[in-house]
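Students often ask why we bother encoding 3D structure as a string. The short answer is that it lets us treat folding as translation between two languages. Here is a chain of 70 residues written in the first language.
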Amino acid sequence: MPYKTRFYAINKGTSIKLDQVFWEVIDEQAAKDGIHWKQWVDQKLEKKPENVGRACWLRVQIVNILREAA
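And here it is in the second language, the structure alphabet:
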């Protein structure tokens, strides 16, 4: 599974590397909510515990969304 890295501005900027399929779900969810993917990520990261990595947290959020939809 190919990885895709997207630039995400936090402080001086950073990047988030996820499998392509996760970015596809993020894009779909953001479009469903009528917002840009960066806004969707912002909303999800607001509740991220400090000791959890951003990519890990986003993957968990996506899995939870898909589980709820199943």
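Translate back mentally: The first helix runs from residue 20 to 33. Keep this in mind for the problem set.
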